[in-house]
Hints:
The protein contains 15 helices and 2 strands. By secondary structure, the protein is mostly helical.
Amino acid sequence: MNKLFFILLSLFALVSCSSDNDSSTSGDDYNRTDLLTNWADNLIIPRLTNYQTKVATLQASTTTFTTTPDQTSLDVLRTAWLEAYKAYQYVGSFNIGKAEEINFNAASNTYPTSATGITTNITNGGYNFALLSQYDKQGFPALDYMLNGLAVTDAEIIDFYVSNGNATAYKQYLTDLSNTLKSNIDLVVTDWNTSYRATYIASNGNAISSSVNKTINSFVKYYEKDIRLGKVGYPAGKFGISIFPEKVEAYYKNDVSKELLNESIIATKDFFNGKHFNSATVGVSLKSYLDYLNAVRDGQKLSDIINNQFATINSTNALLNDSFSNQVTTNNTAMLTSYDELHRLVINFKIDMMVAFNITVDYVDADGD
């Protein structure tokens, strides 16, 4: 009897160890190694590298502007800022590895930015962008304020960097903003190109800490919180009694919030379908995984339902104003309609898809939806 007990105990321990091993295969026999390899080599690393290139251009344009602040260099810097901002929409969902460690997303795109806090930083100096309290004083939203929000006219904005009594500090702050974006993405790309890629692909099991589970959770969370809620829900006052036109993305530029939303939807759809970055090639993906599992809802393939919903979202978003500040002020109903269509995809992702994959949501949903 005791011998049988110890045999069973040993088997239980063996099973327990196997279930916690990220290198184990998935319970549904899907080849997660191929999936992770396609994600790493054809979507994640190429997107991150593209973003890194755009940020390097932003950094160089910042140097040119701070050396010679004039209309030409300001225009070039604004273009570089927007191009890098659009590239960011393709990498925000990969909050794993080094990106998670350094709070990459929060440091890059916390908005609304604190104009008062930025002014205080410039006046007092000694700021530390690594602090949680500094996230709303850096990144793309802070650059938006520094390039578009300091004054009404371009000439007045340029004067902050030329004739203002604190012009040197304004130049330094602008430089620090672009340098921090560059140093952060350099850390992330270097990590992927050295040890993290192999670690990521090797973690091909179904434990909560496995790469597939963490990637899908990061992907769904980003879509739900940063795209659906951040870009649309909060400005439209979805969970309040009033609208918030000042809470839109790129508030001071004020005519690219729709463009940034559209880029993020393209990025989301391409990742779902496994479309290689800057290529027509399609590899193994969330879509092919769902099809492998024969995931259906109401007699229809779940992957088709999701892709059809992307089409509906694009049609609804096409009706929005380029400026979401203007949109929520003049016709918030259209904004709320877009939110509702975006939310339907949250249900498809978070309930239907993640259940099909037997993946547990690892983040807290606190917005009451």
